[in-house]
Amino acid sequence: YDERARSLADKVMGDITxxxxxxxxxxxxxxxNCMRPVSDQDPLGGYGPTALGKIKAASEKYDxxxxxxxxxxxxxxLAGAGSGNKYNRTI
Length: 91
What we know:
Mean pLDDT: 79
Order of helices and strands: HHH
Shape: flat
Number of helices: 3
Oligomer: single chain
Distance between the termini: 31 Å
Radius of gyration: 15 Å
Helix content: 40-55%
Number of strands: 0
Structural class: mainly alpha
Strand content: under 5%
């Protein structure tokens, strides 16, 4: 990403979040494809602790070697999920 584009995207997301908070319409879920894998975003955490637990259990059951969590580069990993998101705040 170009730094200017990233800065603009962060500003737009922040403005939208502020607006939705004011309207009492902000939801914890964020569409995964709209996120970028950086430390300040947690789209998987938006599924909530119950669903996230089920996703982690399925990953452990069907990806025993954790290939998709450890060997595949990029993307959002389950290990950091549920740590919080600067855009997702509970109303």
